[in-house]
Amino acid sequence: MSQKNLICFILWLLIQLLVEINCQMVPYKPKQREGHTATLIDNKLYILGGAYTGNGNADVEKDFFYLDVSASFNTQNLSWNDLSNINVVPLHYDAASVKGGASNNSLFLFGGSNDTVMDSLVYIFNPQDESWKIPEITGNTPVRKSELTGIIDHKGIMYLWGGYDEVDVNINDVNDMLILDTINLVWGKGSLFGVPSIREYYGCTLLSDNNIIYMGGYQFDQGQELTLNQVYLYDTINDNWSTETTSGEVPSGRDSFSTVLGLDGQRVIIFGGYATKDLTPEDSLYELNLINFEWRIPKIFGQIPEVRMNHKANVIGKYMVISFGFGYDQSTESDILLLDISNVDEYIWTNEFFPLLPSIPPTSSSPPLNTSPSNKSSPSISSIPSSATSPTTTVVGAIIGTLFGAALLSFGGFYLYKSKRRDDNNQVGRNIDTHGQEIIQPTSNEYITINEPIRIPASAINKNYNHAQELIPIANNERLTLHGLQQEIQDLKQIILQNGKQSTSVMENNN
């Protein structure tokens, strides 16, 4: 290979490397969509499928990605994680999804519209190993439906009511209740007695009393949005239906809106949707009181976003998290909207998301100190000066310090002796101990043995004990013994204990 060809080859490799690195550094930006699913599992909001707005339902592709909600983020700078390369679900939109399974940590996807034949009615995604599978489900297999919402209860049962019949073009909307046990993988059906009229694109959510509330929606055969002056309750425990009439500021008839349960479990919040008359931003958010079934427009702070249709909403922490939808400009407004619903008196539109911190068990508070005058013969704890309780602690600390210092002194003496034996110049050396104190080594004619006790100057005893900070010099004719060292430690202990008793007696006399 010529030099010129070699240079060209190297340049080509560099260009390929730069292109690959650049592609990896470009953050993933999903397209705007409606009719997708949004499923929260282990602090990850998984977005799957949907139709790209403005391009019709044919242009859906196989996008699959998630938003990590375990950390704070700003909606103006979202960090999406792309999983499209592992997605095996055919193109679809208007499907239903829930979090369920034996461990309550799998994504169950049901039905949906599509332009190609789907291999299964249900797909399951395992976030732990990021794998998809088609389950084997027993029972009477239902027909495929779309334009409905899936609800999961606390026992892992998935409820799929109403929607659009994707198989029989002569039926269109339906009002049957499909039931899927996501743990045992068994199909069932719910009661039709007292069931609401057929509809699609309705709003629903699971309530605290195990009822599912249904409202609004679109009736295909009539070509109209249904009113919200009535709501319908399905009892998941007793498998029956009931109806409640609403009052107050009843929203206009609408479909394709989102519905969530408030944090206190006593109210339902709805947002957006289609209506016979186009909704305004001020007419897009309502709250239904579940005690008296009265509607009201809540007090709102922050910049009110544009009305969205066919979006999804999840309650994450203290926020109603709204994802994608139709009706907003993606170049000027974020794909994610955040409504802080922690204060029932005023909801706040915000761009900042902060996850809930793990709850810390409250510590038991100390009982209040007794500040009343006390009897000198039997003083309370609060009446004793803090200094009066310190001599014992000081004595104990002094004893420990004495033992520790003696051990250090013995080790230091032995170390000096060994060093001096190896030192041929017989000169006086100086070292610095770990406390920054100067240790004066003995001259060459001084030896440290273990025969005679050490002499402690009286000045060292009379001084306040300083936890072995002051080293005791060794006289030329005095030698260190282990027995003598122990005896001196006992003497120091007696002196310190006597000083402590005298201090205590003085303070008792003063009291």
Automatic annotation (TrEMBL):
It comes from the Eukaryota. Keywords: Kelch repeat, Membrane, Repeat, Signal, Transmembrane, Transmembrane helix. The chain crosses the membrane at residues 395-417. The keyword Repeat applies. The keyword Membrane applies. Residues 366-389 have a biased composition (Low complexity). It holds the Pfam family Kelch_KLHDC2_KLHL20_DRC7. Residues 1-23 form the signal peptide. Residues 364-389 are annotated as: Disordered. PANTHER family: ACYL-COA-BINDING DOMAIN-CONTAINING PROTEIN 5, FIBRONECTIN TYPE-III DOMAIN-CONTAINING PROTEIN. This is Galactose oxidase. It comes from Rhizophagus clarus.
